[in-house]
Automatic annotation (TrEMBL):
The keyword Transmembrane does not apply. This is (Mediterranean fruit fly) hypothetical protein. Belongs to the AB hydrolase superfamily. Lipase family. The active site is at S119, D293, H324. Gene3D superfamilies: alpha/beta hydrolase. The lineage of its organism: Eukaryota, Metazoa, Ecdysozoa, Arthropoda, Hexapoda. The keyword Lipid metabolism applies. Residues 25-328 form the AB hydrolase-1 domain.
Length: 352
């Protein structure tokens, strides 16, 4: 719609099932901040949710947000153009997700699909269905794993550190906005892969890298994935995405990007950015959260159910140490997350 070219990846059938000729229910899986579609594959054929869905008989599609390594092209601009990075996760939710879903449904001939989103993948689910409510009809079930929505109680280090400087419009936000943050560089990624491999030369450095992304609790994470993870992550984002999240921390509201009163009046016709009307989300929604999540804090998660008229499941992972990245990279992720999510999707298919 606005020129960004998105790459989707597909697992159309499972070799274990030999079901390539069958019409299958569709699932669309969307990554979080700093991520790309690879993160749903790295846990391998036994434990990665994309493979698990394929083996359960689903047609699996993996999304990639604008600006990451797989979606860094535009119809008229290069990634070096000053306007290329002028977007936040609002545009990903309001434009990229609807465009991706329409493409998937057109290719598969299905009227609707199942949606799974981790972190920012949950954020954009709420943006899409609240700002473009006609897409509720295209979602069979929506599964949000640790969605970053309300953020007033977030304790994640980068967010809390930068909040005084970029959490409200001003010089700090203006200085950092509209540019790539941690841009993907293949030479740097190769260095990280080498440094953090099985015989790591810099174990403390690699541990610090993981700590920055995963949070303080790492006991559940499959640390053997670090070399592969370092090959493509961080996959690249716009600084505006991070600034937008930090604004949510400061305002304690789930609302659109704050440009400052003057530009807000031009953009929104009001001085404050509008809140997303979550009550318009009528699709079957399933929420999953961890008790030790620095980014999707349990207290913030507790605010969500009252806004959602069709919330079917509000699932607290029983492991008290479960953190933000455990939803995709934990050693126990298949049993704790993947199997229940897939079963809910199967139940829907059996009843409909």
């Amino acid at each position: 719609m606005d020129g960004y070219i998105l790459n989707l990846f597909r697992i159309p059938y499972s070799p274990r099932l030999g079901n390539q000729r069958e019409q299958k229910p569709v699932v669309f899986i969307q990554h979080g901040l700093f991520g790309c579609s690879d993160c749903f594959l790295l846990n391998g054929p036994e434990n990665a949710i994309a493979y698990n869905f394929a083996d359960a008989g689903f047609d699996v599609w993996l999304g990639n947000a604008r600006g990451n390594i797989y979606s860094r092209k535009h119809a008229t601009m290069t990634a070096g153009h000053p306007k290329f990075w002028k977007f936040s996760w609002h545009e990903i939710g309001a434009i990229d997700m609807p465009e991706s879903i329409d493409y998937v449904l057109e290719q598969t001939g299905e009227p609707a699909l199942h949606y799974v989103g981790h972190s920012q993948g949950g954020t954009v689910y709420f943006v899409m269905l609240s700002s473009r409510p006609e897409y509720n009809a295209k979602i069979k079930t929506g599964h949000c794993l640790a969605p970053a929505v309300f953020m007033g109680n977030v304790t994640e280090g980068i967010v809390t550190t930068l909040a005084p400087y970029v959490g409200t419009p001003g010089a700090g936000a203006n200085l950092l906005s509209d540019q790539p943050f941690v841009p993907y560089n293949p030479y740097v990624q190769r260095l990280l892969d080498t440094a953090c491999g099985g015989q790591s030369t810099f174990p403390k450095y690699c541990q610090t890298l993981f700590l920055m992304w995963a949070g303080k609790e790492q006991s559940n994470l499959n640390a053997t994935l670090l070399p592969q993870l370092a090959e493509t992550h961080p996959a690249g984002i716009s600084t505006n995405q991070g600034i937008h999240y930090i604004q949510l921390k400061v305002s304690n509201k789930f609302r659109q990007y704050d440009f400052g009163a003057k530009k807000n009046k031009q953009q929104y016709r009001q001085a404050e950015p509008p809140e997303y009307p979550l009550e318009k989300i009528t699709a079957e929604t399933y929420l999953y959260y961890g008790l030790n999540d620095d980014s999707a804090n349990p207290m913030d998660m507790q605010r969500l159910p009252s806004y959602l008229p069709n919330l079917r499941v509000f699932h607290e992972v029983p492991n008290p140490t479960w953190g933000h990245l455990d939803f995709i990279f934990a050693k126990q992720v298949k049993e704790e997350i993947n199997d229940p999510v897939i079963q809910y999707c199967r139940d829907y298919e059996e009843l409909n």
